[in-house]
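FAQ: What does the model actually see?

It sees only this:
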Amino acid sequence: MAKVVSVGIRVFLVDDHEVVRRGLVSLVELEEDLEVVGEAGSVAEALARVAPSHPEVMILDVRLPDGDGIELCREVKSAHPEIACLMLTSYSDDEALFSAILAGASGYLLKQIKGNDLVDAIRRVARGESLLDPAVTARVLARLRSPAPEDDLLAKLSPQERKILDLISDGMTNREIAREMFLAEKTVKNYVSNMLSKLGMGHRSEAAAYAARLSERKRLKENG
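And it is asked to produce this:
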């Protein structure tokens, strides 16, 4: 018997709340042209399962227990640029949106979105469309190119904190940073907490976006 080949859009779900994943599975599977091919509740699970699942679209929660959905998006896009990533979050966060754009996300949606609109979003990004407002993207590029008092913030950090900021921007978890710098994980956690306080930020994703801005501004200046 010939193997039946699926013609549906292949969707992979990443959210640490099982109830949320179950709801998304039910929603997606109602559509004849969509199918859920995998799911994960953490960054580590997603990275282990995404390649064998061959999804066309990933729906990623921004906040995950072992990292950040935006950092996960960056890793996925680096290894599998053909996968469209949709960030789905409960929080409207300008810094997270900024970071999502830099990470290559195709859309940034709030969990308050209606089911039909989410299904439509999946289909659109699968076709290669972007759901990011062009005006927002333009503001992001303008921020990259314009001078800002961010260098003053950077001056507040110790050399150790600067190093940790760079590693966070590379998508490393506290445990990975601890191994890289030969420190206790608890020590790294304290460094991260102090660093965020000095930068006036509340989340790692904001620090990652900040580091990405500095890196991109440097690249733009070097390229004229």
